[in-house]
Amino acid sequence: MMSYPYRALHEVNAVSAIPTEAETEFIDDHKTDLETYAKETLSKLCLGEYSIDDLPKFVQRLDDMGLREYVEIAGARYRRSHPAE
After folding, report:
1. What angle do CA 66, 68, 74 make, to 5 degrees?
2. For the chain, which terminal residue's Cβ has fewer other Cβ atoms within 10 angstroms, N or C?
3. Which residues contact 65 (CB under 8 A, 6 or more apart)?
4. If 0-12 CB within 10 Å is exposed, 13-18 middle and 19+ buried, where does residue 73 land?
5. How far is it, in rounded angstroms, from Cα 83 to Cα 78?
6. Model's pTM, two decimal places?
7. Residue-wise pLDDT tens for the chain (85 aa)?
């Protein structure tokens, strides 16, 4: 039997703590817009309707839409549920 250094996704404990009221409000206000913009832009990129040269604008737009804060909330929730890691 071979040993692999990586675990399958289903083997990783990715459970996060329940968000605080403020986190829930932020997630509710930003998640759909972030996901929609990312999916639409990546689809356009795949179809050749969006230039790879415009990726810095894409990343900046995501930051302007609150992605950085969204990721910080996800990290905080994870750290609350996995304090020893």
Report:
1. 105
2. N
3. 30, 33, 34, 37
4. buried
5. 8
6. 0.74
7. 444 444 444 444 456 889 999 999 999 999 999 999 999 999 999 999 999 999 999 999 999 999 999 999 999 998 998 888 6
